[in-house]
Amino acid sequence: MPPHAGGRRRGSRSWSTGILVGACIVVAVAGGVIGGVIVNAFSSSSPSGTAGSPAAGTLAHTCLVTPVARETLPSVVTISVTGPSASGTGSGEVIRSGGYILTNNHVIAAAANGGSISVMFSNGTTADAELTGRDPLTDIAVIKVSGESNLRVIPG
Predict the structure, then answer these.
(1) For site-directed labelling of 93, which of 43, 61, 117, 144 has its Cα 20 to 30 A away?
(2) CA R_g for the chain
């Protein structure tokens, strides 16, 4: 009898399939247990108004976004570019109080060959900027706003 027609080969296939299914079940159960442990670690386990809950004044597992935003947003800018054949917008952050702003090369690429760059600060004021350096390979660029000083540098 040829090897491909024997019952032994079919049996070994069933055995291999059984091991694969069993392994998948073990991985699924382990993943569920690990996921449950992670969720439990990051969620409040006590009812509202008891010790350990935000209502009781404890914020052990809560990220306070408002203070982070208050500290960071004055350093974040919106960049508008206009070039000979394209325009666009993007974002950047003040890295030096004298007006240097870090952004991505793809944000300012349209203005790299004779276009214009404008920066809007978080308070709504705007200023013109010039390209001081860029690296298309790493998608990084630095621009400098004109006539601005004492800008808020992004926290490090």
Answers:
(1) 61
(2) 29
Q: What is the pLDDT of residue 78?
A: 97
CATH of segment(s) 66-145:
2.40.10.10
Question: What's the Cα-to-Cα distance from 85 to each of 80, 82, 109, rounded to whole Å?
Answer: 14, 8, 11
**SS3 state of residue 104:** coil
Tens of pLDDT, residues 107-143: 999 999 889 999 999 999 999 999 999 999 999 999 9
Task: Give whole-number Cα distances, 147 to 53, 63, 96, in Å.
Answer: 49, 37, 14
Cα–Cα distance, 65 to 54 (Å, whole number)? 15
The list of the chain residues with pLDDT below 50 reads 6-11, 44-53, 56
CA–CA dist 70, 76 (Å, integer): 11
State the sign of the Cα–Cα–Cα–Cα dihedral 5, 9, 13, 18. Answer: positive
69: left (phi over 0), alpha (psi -120 to 50) or beta: alpha
